[in-house]
Fold:
Amino acid sequence: MKRKFTFILLMLIASGVSAQWSSDPSVNTFVAGSGNNHTYPLITADPSGSFYISSVSSVPNTYFNYHLQRIDGQGNPLWGTNGKLISDNQCDTWISRYDLVVDTAGNAIMTLDD
Structure:
């Protein structure tokens, strides 16, 4: 058993596997970067060990956009730099409530005022 563990450990080191989650609490793990402020983050795990992270970005003096990003267990973004734009319908008043959950099949369910 010890020999098998050592072999797996050496293979991981040799392949250059490294986590993307920041080990420094003063440095954030990058989730989305559309150039606008992302606020109201929600995070939830799916059954496979990945995470969904939603956020709301504000477009200055206009409206709010809702975004969703999927992160694997090592902290790697799976849906590109900005994640997926869920809604860019004009919502120019305020954010009263939105929510994010995952069903048993690993699908994200996001509810929002649009």
Summary: The beta strands are 37-45, 51-59, 63-71, 84-87, 98-102, 108-112. The two ends are 55 Å apart (CA to CA).
